[in-house]
Amino acid sequence: MVKQEENLLLGIDVGGSSVKVAAFTPDGLLRGFQCEAITIDYPRPGWAEVWPRQWLEKIAAGIHALYTKNGIRKEQVAAMGLSTMCPALIPFDPQGQVLRPAILYMDTRSQEQARRLRQEIALDTVVRLTGNRIAAGTISATSMLWLKEQEPETYKKVAFFGHGNTYLGLLLTGEAGIDPSNASLTGLFTTGRELDWSQELCQAYGLSRHKLPPVIPSARNLGSLRPEAAAALNLPQGIPVAMGGADTACSGLALGVTERGQVFETAGTSDVLSLCTDDPQFDDRFLNRCHVVPGRWLNMGAMSTPGAAFRWVRDQLGQVEKYVAEASGQDAYDILCSEAAQSRPGAGGVIFLPYLSGERSPIWDPLARGAFVGLSLATTRSDLVRAVLEAGCYGLRQNLAIAEKILGARIERIAVVGKGAKNSIWAQLRADITGKEILAIAYHETAVLGAAMLGGIAAGIYSGYHEAIEKAATREGILCQPDEGHKEIYDQAFLIYSQVYQQLKEVFPSLTAIR
Description:
Blueprint: E1 8-14, E2 18-24, E3 30-37, E4 49-50, H1 53-70, E5 77-84, E6 88-92, E7 102-104, H2 111-120, H3 123-130, H4 141-150, H5 152-157, E8 160-162, H6 164-173, H7 180-183, H8 199-205, E9 221-224, H9 227-233, E10 240-242, E11 245-246, H10 247-254, E12 263-267, E13 271-277, E14 287-290, E15 297-303, H11 306-317, H12 319-328, H13 332-340, E16 351-353, E17 371-373, H14 381-407, E18 413-418, H15 419-422, H16 424-434, E19 437-441, H17 446-458, H18 465-472, E20 477-480, H19 487-504, H20 508-513
Helix pairs in contact: 2-4, 10-17, 11-12, 11-14, 12-13, 13-14, 14-16, 17-18
C-alpha cells in the first residue's frame, strides 16, 4: 500500500497504438502503470486518423485502473504532464470543439500539397527556418492545406489548429497552446533561435497565422485542472497541468539526455534515433525539433512504421500467438521474437522493407511500400518474422551513419527504450546489425515518465530540469554487445537491404495507383 502522505506525479502519453497512464514519486519510482489500446482508422490507402475523444476515454480508464490495481488515491496526485505522438493535427472551432478526426504523422494524404510546396519554396530556405523538409504527414502544414482544399466547409469553421497536447491541455484546463517540440513539426515554426510562428511561411503556404495557437514552454503550468475534467477523470480539482511535449522529446528528458552528443533511440510504433545538440544547425536528412529542455534541440532519424510493421505481423500472421498470449498472460510480441530466433541471421536470405506507410528518414519517400524479397520454397514463417525485426535494425544502421556525420564522431553506445528494448532478442539484433553497444533501458516507458517530470517542474516540486533529472531520470539497463560472429553476414544483408529500395522505388508509384 502506498503511503497516504506520498505525493505522486501523473504522466499521460498518447501514442500511435495506445494511451499510457503512470504515477511516479518525485524520485522517479513507479507506483502504477496502465496501458489502454486505441483504434486508428485507415479509411483510405495512405490515411491514418483517430477521433481525439477516444484518448480521453482511455485516459479515464487508465486512471481508474491505477486506483483499483495499485491502491493509489486520487488525493495523492499533485501534478500532471502530457506526452503525445507528433504530429497529430486537430482542427478546433471557436468553442474549442474538435471538427474532424486527427490526421496522424503516418498519414500521407497530403502528398500533392507537399509536392506543390516543394516546387514553390527552396529546400534550404525551409530547412533553415523550420529545421525540416516539406513532407506529407511529417509536418502538419501540408495536412492543414489538404483540409483547406479538400474539406473547405470544415476549414472555414476552424478557429485554430493544434496537436495532441493542444487538445488535452484545452480539455483539462480550458487553455489552448502548443509546445515548441510539437510546433517544430508543423512546418510553420522557426525552430532555430526565434522559436515563433513564421509569417513568411504562413503566407507562402496560403495558411492563416491566426489559426495557430500560442506557443508555451513544455514545463510551464498551462493551468489548473478544471472541475469538469477533474470529475470526468476522477482527479483532484485544481492540480497543475504542464503543457508537455512530443513523446520523443519527453523520453529524452526521462533519460537525462540534455547535452550535446548524447544519443538515444525510441522504438515503438515508429522508430526514432535522436541526437541531442545545443546548436540549431539542421541536416535535411533528419527531422529536427526543439527539445522539451530550453536551449536544446534533437536531430532525429525518424522511421515511420518499423514497430507498426511488427504489429502487422502479430495481427496478420500471429493469430495463434495472440490467442496463446491472451490465455497464458504472456506478450504475443515476445512469443513472436522467440520464433524469430529460430531463424538464422539474415532470415534465410529474406529481406523486408518496413515502409508500410511511406518512409521518412533516411529515404523520404511517401510512396514507398513494404516488400518481402528473397522468398523461396524453403522460407519459413520464422524467417518472415525475423526479416521484419531485422528490417528496422537495418534502417537504424542507415540513420546512425548520418548521425555520426552530423556529430563528427563515432557513436559507440545507444540507449534504447520502447518495444525494441523490452525484448532481449530484439535488443540483441540491434547490437549485431549496427555493431554498437545497445543499452536496453530497464524502464522503457520513458515518454510517460518524462511527462510526469514536466508536471513536477510545472508544480514547483522540482526547481527546474536539472533537479528533475537528478532525482527522477532513468539510466539503468541491460547492455548488449554486438556478436562479431554475425558481422559478415549482416554487412552483406545490410548492403542488399539498401539496394532493394533503390531497385523497387520506381515501382511504388504504380502500386499506389492500384485501389
